[in-house]
From TrEMBL:
UniProt-listed Enzyme Commission number(s): 4.3.2.7
Gene3D superfamilies per UniProt: Gamma-glutamyl cyclotransferase-like (3.10.490.10)
One GO biological process term: glutathione catabolic process
Keywords from the UniProt entry: Apoptosis, Cytoplasm, Golgi apparatus, Lyase, Neurogenesis, Notch signaling pathway, Unfolded protein response
Locations listed in the record: Cytoplasm, Cytosol; Golgi apparatus, trans-Golgi network
GO cellular component, one term: Golgi apparatus
Alphabetized PANTHER family for the sequence: CATION TRANSPORT PROTEIN CHAC-RELATED, GLUTATHIONE-SPECIFIC GAMMA-GLUTAMYLCYCLOTRANSFERASE 1
Keyword tRNA processing (UniProt): no
Protein name (Swiss-Prot/TrEMBL): Gamma-glutamylcyclotransferase
Highest taxon of source: Eukaryota
Length: 189
């Protein structure tokens, strides 16, 4: 847990941009669609548990610093006992099993009447042992098309994220995501 998340924190925002946008799987008080500035979302992280295995790691998303970019997702506010419960759960799901590290970033809600707030986000960095790094949309799609793990097929992970963006952020262009989706669908249909 980052040093600036005090144990007695009574309210905390947690920003999701991958599976957390469609399956947070922890209790929260409210959620908002919005974005964080200075990061781009990329399918550059490996997953040898949820959507792949040790021999055939799947590909899931992480954030890569890019001052010109922003990433859209969902922020969830946890309050009271939800703070400790969600952090305990996410520490296993994201850090222990997923290889992500947490940091605080500024989240900006889509509703411009609402204030920005600090949010906890989980990021897999390039020094992570299961980090896979850049590849072409075709190469990423080919890997996703053949991988499956404890929670299901890697293509489900891809399609649910693409569906989230189409439904909740239709104005946002995400060529990386949708080029991989198109390439993966061309392989499986
Ligand atoms: N940290 C990102 C990515 C989270 C993510 O996709 N983590 C993987 C762990 S490698 C996960 O929880 N997968 C669950 C699943 O695929 O059902 C987020 O905020 O959504």
């Amino acid at each position: 847990m980052p040093q600036d998340v005090l144990p007695e924190t009574s309210s905390l925002w947690i920003f999701g941009y991958g599976s957390l946008v469609w399956n947070p799987d922890f209790s929260y008080s409210r959620s908002k669609v919005g974005h964080i500035q200075g990061y781009k979302r990329r399918f550059w992280h490996g997953d040898n548990f949820y959507r792949g295995d040790k021999d055939t790691p799947g590909r899931v998303v992480t954030l890569v610093e890019d001052l010109e970019a922003c990433t859209w997702g969902v922020a969830y506010e946890v309050t009271g006992s939800q703070v400790e419960e969600s952090l305990k759960y996410l520490n296993v799901r994201e850090a222990t099993r997923g290889g992500y590290v947490s940091k605080m970033v500024e989240f900006t809600p889509r509703d411009q009447d609402e204030d920005a707030s600090l949010a906890l986000v989980y990021i897999a960095t390039s020094d992570n042992p299961i980090y896979l790094g850049p590849a072409s949309p075709a190469e990423i799609a080919a890997q996703i098309a053949i991988c499956r793990g404890h929670t299901g097929h890697n293509i489900e992970y891809l399609l649910r994220l693409a569906d989230f963006m189409r439904m909740y952020c239709p104005e946002v262009e995400d060529d990386h995501l949708f080029s991989i989706e198109a390439a993966a669908l061309a392989l499986v249909i």
